[in-house]
Amino acid sequence: MQSQHIENVVIVGGGTAGWIAAAAMARLLGQAVKITLIESDAIGTVGVGEATIPQIRRLNGVLGLDENDFVRETRGTFKLGIEFNNWGHLGESYLHTFGDAGINLASLHFHQYWLRSRAEGNTAGLWDYSLHHKAAYAHQFGRMERVGKTSMTGLAYAFHFDAGLYARYLRKHAEANGVTRTEGKVVDVALAPESGFIQSVQLESGDIVSGDLFIDCSGFRGLLIGQALDIGYQDWSQWLPCNGAVAVGCESTLPLLPYTKATAHDAGWQWRIPLQHRTGNGHVFCDNFINEEAATETLLSNLDGAPNGSPKRLRFTTGRREKFWHKNCVSLGLASGFLEPLESTSIHLIQSNVSKLIELFPDKAFDPSNELEYNRQVSHEYELIRDFLILHYHRTDREDSEFWRYCKNMSVPESLTDKMRLFEGNGLLYKDPEDLFRESSWVQVMVGQGLMPKSFHAMANRLSSDQLNTFLGDVQKLIARATGELTQHQAFIDTHCKADLQ
Questions:
Q1: How many angstroms separate the CA atoms of 352 and 346, rounded?
Q2: Stretch (H or E) spanning 132
Q3: Can you list the alpha helix ranges (DSSP code H) found in 288-437?
Q4: Active site residue 79
Q5: What backbone torsions phi and psi does residue 182 show, to the nearest 5 degrees?
Q6: Torsion of CA 67, 275, 385, 320, to 10 degrees
Q7: Are 341 and 263 in contact (CB under 8 A)?
Q8: CB atoms < 10 A from the CB of 248, how many?
Q9: Are 321 and 226 in contact (CB under 8 A)?
Q10: How far apart are CA 196 and CA 280, in angstroms?
């Protein structure tokens, strides 16, 4: 009997998406599947940010990567959250941290107790009860899973790194696990006449590469999924209107901050990502409200140090493919969609989708059920992340520019409207089990953007006022004790994972 198992996987495109896919599949599928990755040194990769969220630690764990070695080789730093400046109000900031504020008590989220204390006259802000907030602004870091023997979680963290070095690092591990890299540009795609499945791709050299399953990591072009298979694109720019970016590195400045900065401007926002050898910067903007020349000037006038070269330009349309998996082709990374780098979700979506693909890995029969379920799961995840990003733009009191007036007054998906309305009542949140962002993330962004609940959950009344004050005071004491055990972010890097910058 002829085997029905997939024998040859062909990945078209390298970069972060291609090499994550190659490394993960080689690690988890083993030598029974031959993996070929095609990329061209002549085609540059698009980097729109070099920041991640904590889920990347799972990927690194699956791949068997040593964390200190990974940070050292990618010239990385540690990340406790994202500071949002000028989003809800001009001149105001908040930190969306990766951790919970306070401690949940008796199945009720901490923010409910904080809301009650606020109603009783407590002037302390939500972040006064956040370990991550205290550590970030003290420029501290450490690997701390829990605070002592308490139920308070320790530091949840992610990374900033050089995306090009990360791809190179993954390539080394993928090739060590049997992945074959083929240099070349794809110039033609051959489809089976009856089924419409991809049979092979032809390189500029004339070489033909055949496969059973094709992974499209060709970036915005969508060489396979879009051009060859004609899968359309769902445009979400009515909700996420930014459609361009200019990016440039600049000289590093000290202290080395353990968080990303996202600063809102008149027609978009600017990221600041600290690395060991430079600071990454980019201005994401909407050309309906500002031209590229002015956007570039805004970027260059808001750098911490001298730029390292000329700004790179990027054009995009926020949205996603109508289908992510079609016939024997699966799209990943920019080929599958783009939700802009506001909450550093791009790399997560790559690793999440690779994981889903491996879970639903087909055989040569390509049962349509696998494709259907994959597309359902990925579509839902995109929509959940989409709503979270829209929240940042829509829930604002800014009316000082045409861009922000548009964002404030635009119609948004009903799913987001319902979530905002529920929270505004008494701080309740419906948590979709497939939502990437935990309840604490939604709370921080809603409160940070100025959406304050009118009341709080009745269960918060179970404590007397004295008990409530004692509980809140104990939380702050635990945080003070925990931060006393941390070291400076720079010192931690110097000790454990300092890069060779020579």
A1: 10
A2: helix 131-137
A3: 292-300, 346-359, 368-394, 402-409, 414-426
A4: yes
A5: -115, 125
A6: -100
A7: no
A8: 20
A9: yes
A10: 43
Length of the chain (residues): 502
Q: Are 29 and 178 in contact (CB under 8 A)?
A: no
- Walk along the chain (502 residues) and give the pLDDT tens digit of each residue: 466 999 999 999 999 999 999 999 999 998 889 999 999 987 766 554 589 999 999 999 999 999 999 999 999 999 999 999 999 999 999 999 999 999 999 899 999 999 999 999 999 999 999 999 999 999 999 999 989 888 888 999 999 999 999 999 999 999 999 999 999 999 999 999 999 999 999 999 999 999 999 999 999 999 999 999 999 999 999 999 999 999 999 998 889 999 999 999 999 999 999 999 999 999 999 999 999 999 999 999 999 999 998 999 999 999 999 999 999 999 999 999 999 899 999 999 999 999 999 999 999 999 999 999 999 999 999 999 999 999 999 999 999 999 999 999 999 999 999 999 999 999 999 889 999 999 999 999 999 999 999 999 999 999 999 999 999 999 999 999 999 999 999 999 999 999 998 7
Contact 451, 420 (CB under 8 A): yes
Pairing of the two strands 34-39 and 77-79: unpaired
Tell me the residue type at 380: H
DSSP state of 225: I
Mapped onto helix, strand or coil, the DSSP state of residue 175 is helix
What's the per-residue H, E or C state across 139-180?
A: CEECCCCECCCCCCECCCCEEECCHHHHHHHHHHHHHHCCCE
Contacts of residue 125, defined as CB under 8 A and 6 or more positions apart, other chains included, come to none
CA–CA separation, 188 and 213 (whole Å)? 16
Q: Name the helix (H) or strand (E) containing 448.
A: helix 439-448
What the block records as the tokens of 182 is: 């083929």
382: Cβ contacts below 8 Å, ≥ 6 apart? 320, 337, 339, 349
Burial class (CB in 10 A: 0-12, 13-18, 19+), 40: middle
Q: How far apart (Å, rounded) are the C-alpha atoms in residues 248 and 299? A: 8
Place of tokens 């702050």: 476
Distance between terminal CA atoms of the chain?
57
What domains does the chain contain, in order, with CATH numbers?
8-50+162-234+322-366 (3.50.50.60)
Element (H, E) at 93: strand 93-97
Cross-strand pairs, 121 = none
Given the residues 34, 79, 356, 477, the one annotated as active site: 79
DSSP 427: S
Secondary structure tally for the chain: helices H, strands E: 14, 23
CB neighbour list of residue 203: distance below 8 Å, 6 or more residues apart: 38, 182, 184, 185, 186, 187, 209
The owner of tokens 């990943």 is 332
Residue 253 parent element (H or E): none
